[in-house]
Write a structure and sequence with these properties.
Helix content is about 40%, strand content about 15%. It is an alpha/beta fold. The two termini are about 20 Å apart. The structure holds pyridoxal-5'-phosphate.
């Protein structure tokens, strides 16, 4: 029987085994493991890739979000109690970063077709306490950044992109990471640009912000034993930076393959019970996950599993229904709730073969509700 896993990270990294081992050996032999040339080099290549002036490596994607908001507080651009607009259907990390800074998350519903935050709903949620927008490029598709940038400029709001799922996505040749005042990336192993452990980064064109982040990630210190801020330890180590430099050099090839798989699904799946995702533009989507919708999502997931196709759900519980935010449990976000009840992610990855994708299409088309 068919046995297609959702995401084979081992196989993804096996493609680059020799290069990864060589990079790892270089770091081991250097005797320098934190804050060295591997980090500087990766930060420069990643900034170049995003089209920004600066990239600041940190320990993970959540820290990239938390520390950016924290830096804006240190710089006097945000203060406790300010409202930050965030999509109601995002992964919880985007919201945790706001709460962790004693800022107020204001959940705003997405567009049902793109699953990304709806600019009109942002406008409707603005109050005199709104200071920032935190759009998320969910599932690998850039949010409507031209419209969001317009709202932000008219109302003098900061924009922090959550680009954890969208490395390399672009609109009008402007990449994820280069739309907001800052952008947070995750290099968790399962992300499109994945380390072999935890890692993250912030990109920005703002030198003052970049400098503050470099201090905050390192105990609040620019200079050894001199502490400007009550910082944290959130550093991207040399081994992970070296792994990421290898992975970054293959990212565009991997994105191209993801787009091929997406096209096979989009052109092949014709079952009316399965609602396909909408991509606003080929370049705007890097297909971190390929998310379909089905009214009886559980039945479709079981059917696919019975036929040897592993699927996942991104995400089963909306943030406002999480125990962690029990104070929001009476709030209603009908579009998010519908999305969370109906979404199912089909396998997509740089190592999923076109033949396997075609088999999945056939299985999907034979599904009967
Ligand atoms: C993965 C992810 C994060 C957090 O990244 P970590 O590296 O796991 O901390 C934040 N936001 C979104 C949308 C993510 O998908």
């Amino acid at each position: 029987m068919l046995n297609i896993s959702f995401l084979d990270i081992k196989a993804i990294n096996a493609q680059y085994r020799d290069e990864l081992i060589e990079a790892c050996t270089r770091v081991i032999d250097s005797g320098w493991y934190i804050g060295g040339s591997e980090l500087t080099q990766f930060e420069q290549s990643f900034a170049d890739y995003c089209g920004t002036e600066f990239a600041i490596g940190v320990a993970n994607g959540l820290d990239a979000l938390i520390l950016t908001l924290r830096a804006w507080k240190e710089l006097g651009k945000l203060k406790e109690g300010d409202e930050v607009i965030v999509p109601s259907n995002t992964y919880i990390a985007s919201i945790l970063a706001i709460s962790a800074n004693n800022l107020i998350p204001i959940l705003v519903e997405p567009d049902i077709n793109t699953y990304n935050i709806c600019p009109k709903n942002i406008e409707a949620a603005l109050t005199d306490k709104t200071r920032a927008i935190l759009p998320v490029h969910l599932y690998g598709q850039l949010a409507d950044m031209p419209a969001i940038t317009d709202v932000a400029q008219r109302h003098n709001l900061l924009v922090l992109e959550d680009s954890a799922q969208a490395h390399g996505a672009s609109i009008d040749d402007r990449n994820a990471g280069n739309w907001g005042d800052a952008s947070a990336f995750s290099f968790y192993p399962g992300k499109n640009l994945g380390a072999l452990g935890d890692a993250g980064a912030v990109t920005t064109n703002d030198k003052e912000l970049a400098d503050t982040l470099r201090a905050l990630r390192n105990y609040g210190s620019h200079e050894k034993y001199k502490n400007l801020f009550q910082g944290v330890n959130s550093r991207l180590d040399e081994i992970q930076a070296a792994m990421l430099s290898v992975k970054l050099s293959h990212l565009d090839t991997e994105i191209a393959h993801r787009r091929k798989i997406a096209t096979v699904y989009l052109e092949g799946i014709s079952n009316l019970d399965i609602i396909l995702p909408t991509s606003i533009d080929e370049e705007a989507h890097v297909w971190h996950v390929f998310v379909v919708r089905c009214t009886d999502r559980g039945a479709l997931q079981k059917y696919l599993a019975d036929n040897g196709v592993q699927t996942l759900i991104h995400y089963p519980i909306p943030p406002h229904k999480q125990q962690a935010y029990v104070e929001w449990s009476e709030l209603r976000y009908p579009i998010s709730e519908k999305i969370h009840n109906e979404v199912l992610s089909l396998p997509i990855s740089p190592v999923l073969s076109i033949e396997d994708a075609e088999k999945i299409v056939k299985i999907c088309n034979e599904y009967q509700s």
